[in-house]
Sequence to fold (460 residues):
Amino acid sequence: MANQPEAGESLYQASEKIHPREIGGRFQRLRVLAVIALLGLYYVMPWVQWDGRQAILFDLPSRQFYIFGMVFWPQEFYFLSALLIIAAISLFFFTALAGRLWCGYACPQTVWTEVFLWMERWTEGPATKRKKLDKGPWTREKVLRKTSKQALWILFALFTGFTFVAYFSPATELASRLASFSLGPWETFWTLFYGFATYGNAGYMREQVCKYMCPYARFQGAMFDPDTLIISYDEERGEPRGPRKRGIDHRAKGLGDCIDCKLCVQVCPTGIDIRDGLQYECIACAACVDACDSVMDKMGYPRGLVRYSSERGMEGKRTKVLRPRIFLYGTLLTILAAVFVTALAMRSPVGLDVLPERNPMFRESGFGDIENIYTLKVINKDSEPRTFEVEVSGLTGAELSLRPETVSVRPGGVQDIIATVTVNMEHLEDRTSDVYFTITRTDDESVSTTTRTRFHGPAR
Fold:
């Protein structure tokens, strides 16, 4: 067969390293601002203090998650679940509305890759010089440039891994242990692991992650429609493409506005040609838009040969912003966000778990009284120590005794209380009955919570 490979010929083409050319422009300035803002938050937040402790800290050993003035517990995992659902719906909404804005401006892979590219440009020079350096022999200059780049990459990656661990172990204590070379085994492992992942993904696997590893690139097409905002090449205006001198009447020569300079390909971080149409490798970073606009300015042509538009807009039709899927995603997002904020605002700063003793389930006294013993876990979700009162209800004549009698809980702490409920047998109508425990903060009666459990007695 004609298309069969010859003997010894590989069926696979080796991936060539992409050296994206640096370009300025309004969209690239937005991307730089996004990188600075997002990485600034990531690296600074572990060092921000709030009420004498780290503002954001996920204390896994204590199972306490601090976010500014709030303390969350594993029992409140539904908040995280709701937040993830909101994030997913937001991704669908913004993708249907404006394409891959997330990929181009806020994705961690994009953000860290941009920083690693900056360091590569600082040490090895612009794209043309980097290509020449890679192909050239190992000279003293090449060794120095490559070594300095690797040093910057490794230091930055390790700092990234250290910062990641600082969200789970107090940053100041972590830094102190690092300075004395006394990091724990798990802290060391995760610092190195996350640092290595950053180094590999942003340093070497850049476009490979976007092309082959990221699932979003594969299913994004299902969320696009003819009105979705995408980066498009105006083929009707640009074709036929071809080089020409500045100032000539290119229309008279039968040429379109595209001068086939290939600058849009040279600046693309994934190495695609946007003139071939929308491709799943496109991350909507708009580098090609800024590159083409700069060429159009030099040639004296109108901007927008490559631009943000929609399939319908490129056909000369009006783009519909409000359409069924946008309305559906927007409505769901609004409802979920409102419910989440409301639930967060109504979140009680106190929690109560009741664990009945199972062996024995009840004890019978000589006076016809039945006793049930419970372990009350009182959770103080506040940032201040609190004292609570405990009451029992639901059973006539129920008496409550506590050990210890004073329920005082430290900030973000849990206090175990042994509660004994005694009820005379004549007040029990069935073998099991509902009983309610209520805890109330002594300095604020509006802060309370109630938990229902079962009271067990003998068969009647």
Summary: The chain has a mean pLDDT of 90.
